[in-house]
Amino acid sequence: MKFPGSVLVSLVLFVAETAAALCLSGAYRAAGDRMWQWLTLLFALLPCALVQLSLVFIHRDVSRDRPLVLLLHLLQLGPLVRCVEVFYIYFHAGRVEEPYVSITKKRQMPKDGYSEEIEKEVGQAEGKLCTHRSAFSRASVIQAFLGSAPQLTLQLYICVLQQEITAARSIFMVLSLLSIVYGALRCNILAIKIKYDDYDVSVKPAAYLCIFMWRSFEIATRVTVLVLFSSVLQIWILPVVLVNFFGFFFYPWILFWQSKSPFPENIEKALSRVGTTIVLCLLTFLYAGINMFCWSAVQVKLNDPDLINKSQNWYRLTVYYMLRFIENAFLLLMWYIYKTDIYLYVCAPLLVLQLLIGYCMGVLFMLVFYQFCHPCKKLFSSSISEALLSCFKFLCFICKPHKSTVLTDKADVKSPENTDEAWSSSKTIDSQKGNPHQSVSSNA
Under 8 Å CB-to-CB from 98, ≥6 apart: which residues? Predict the structure, then answer.
C-alpha cells in the first residue's frame, strides 16, 4: 500500500500558511495597518472555509450523519482530523484480513503497440485511502488558487509599496508560492489520472521535477508582472483582472450553451437543481482562478458526465501561452513607461528581460514534460512538437501573402510601363504615316 505522503504535504502547507497568515495579520495590527490586516485575514480564512466544504462534500458527511466530524470542520480542524484518520487506516491496514475486496481492471502502458490488461484486488482500506488522497488533492488546488495566489500577490504588492521585505513576510511569501506550485502540480496529476483512468499510471520523479520547475517559473513571473503593473496603474489593474477572470469563468458556460446539452443532474443525488447550479458555479470559479495565474491542466466541460474534457487539445494550450506571453509583455511595457520614483534604483530593462526569460523558461520545462516525461506520452495521437510545428505552419500560412495577390500586384506595377510603351509605339506609327503626306506636298 502506497504511503500517503501527498496528504501529509497538503496538511503541512495548509497549517503552516494559515499560522503564518495569522501571525502576519497580528503584525499589521500592531503597526496600525488595518487594511492590510483585514485583507490578509480574508485571503487566509476564505479558502479555509472552502477547503472544509470541499472535504465534507467529497466524503458525503452530511448524508452519513456524522455530527462530530461536521463540528470539527466548523472549527476549521477538518484537514487535521482527516489526516489522523488517513494514517490510522494506513498503519492498521493488513493486520486483519478484509472480508470483502473489489477487483479493478487497469491497462498497462502499450509496449510495441500491445497493451495488456491486469487485474488488481483493492481492499476497503486502500479504497478509503484513495478517497482521502483525492479529497486532499482537490483541497490543495482550492487552497492554492483561491487563497495562496491572491495572498502572494497582496504581500508582494505591500513589499513594493513599503520598499521593505521583513522576515515574516518573506517566509509567508515562500510558503504561499510553494502552496501554489504544489496545487498546480496536484492539478496536473489529477488531470492525468482523470483522462487516463483506464490505465495504470505511474508518475516518475523526473516528471514531478519538470512540473515543479514549469509551474514555479510560470506562477512567479505572472504574480510579479501583475504586482509591477498594479503598483504604477492602480485603476487599470481592475479591468485586467476582471476581463481575465470573467473570461475564463464564462468560457465553459458558453461552450455548454452552444452544445445545447441537457442540464447535468448526476453530480450528486442529494442536490437539487439550485444546489447543482451552485456547485457548477463554484467549479468554474475555481477554474477561472487557476487560469488567472497559470494554465489549468484540468479543462472543465459541463456537458460531459465527469465535467472534465478528456481530450488533449494542443491548439488551446498553444493559444493560451501565446496570448499570456503577449499580455505579460504589454503589462511590463506599461510599467516601464509609467514607472515611478520607487523604482529609481531598479534596472528596469534588465528586470523586464528577466521576467520574460523566466516565463519562457516555464514554457520550456512544460515542453520537456509533455515531450519526454509525461507518463502517458505513448497514448498521444500527436506529440506536442508536431502540434507546435503545425501551429507555426498555420501562422506562417496566414502571414504569408498568397500567389494570386502577388501576381496582381506585379501586374499593377507593370501596367504603367506597358501603357508608356504602347503610347510611344503609337506615336512612332503616326509619325510614319505622316511622312508620305509631307513628301507629296513638297513635290507638288
Answer: 123, 124, 125
Is there a contact between 131 and 28 (Cβ–Cβ < 8 Å)? no
pLDDT tens digit sequence for 228-278: 999 998 889 999 999 999 999 999 999 889 888 887 776 666 667 777 888
CA–CA separation, 115 vs 100, rounded Å?
Answer: 29
**Which of left, alpha, beta for 60 (phi over 0: left; psi -120 to 50: alpha)?**
left
Q: How far apart are CA 260 and CA 243, in angstroms?
A: 25
Q: Give the residues across from 120 on adjacent strands.
A: 104
Quote the longest CA-to-CA distance of the chain: 140
* Radius of gyration for the alpha carbons in the chain, expressed in angstroms and rounded: 31
Does an H or E element contain 122, and which? strand 117-123
d(CA 30, CA 357): 40
pLDDT higher than threshold 50 for residue 415: no
Report the SS3 class of residue 115.
Answer: coil
- Find out whether 370 and 191 touch, Cβ atoms under 8 Å: no
pLDDT at 67: 72
How does residue 423 score in pLDDT terms, banded at 50, 70 and 90? very low
Average pLDDT estimate for 322-345 = 90
Cell of 110: 502499450
The distance of Cα 328 from the centroid of its chain, to the nearest Å, equals: 15
pTM for the structure as a whole: 0.82
- The C-alpha cell at 57 is 462534500
Query: Which amino acid appears at position 37 of this protein?
Result: Q
Residue 329: the pLDDT is: 94
| pLDDT bracket for residue 327 (50, 70, 90) | very high
Measure the CA–CA gap between 218 and 295, rounded to whole angstroms.
9
H helix runs in 121-204, sequence order: 124-143, 149-162, 167-195
Element holding 107 (H helix, E strand): strand 101-107
Residues in the chain, total: 444
Grid cell of 120 as nine digits:
488488481
